[in-house]
Hints:
Blueprint: H1 11-19, H2 49-59, H3 64-79, H4 83-89
Amino acid sequence: FGGAFTYTRAAKLRRLVVELPLTDIVLETDAPDMRPATCRSQRNTPIHLFDVFRAMCELRDESPEEIARQTTRNACDVYRLDFDKVIEDC
Length: 90
């Protein structure tokens, strides 16, 4: 999910954010397109991933730590990265 679901009018996307299993979600910024609602007047860059993350945390029941960990694991799976190494390097 990227910045599109951060807009309150994106009801279908927001419902998907809540209903999909966390194991099926990867976060992205859609940079330079589709800015998150929190930065409409700014250029969209990868740093806005934190805005997307915060918006997801507001909608889901899991803790921010669990959301961060699982979406990072999911991204590692997509890019065939070693999750433990990625976490260690952080």
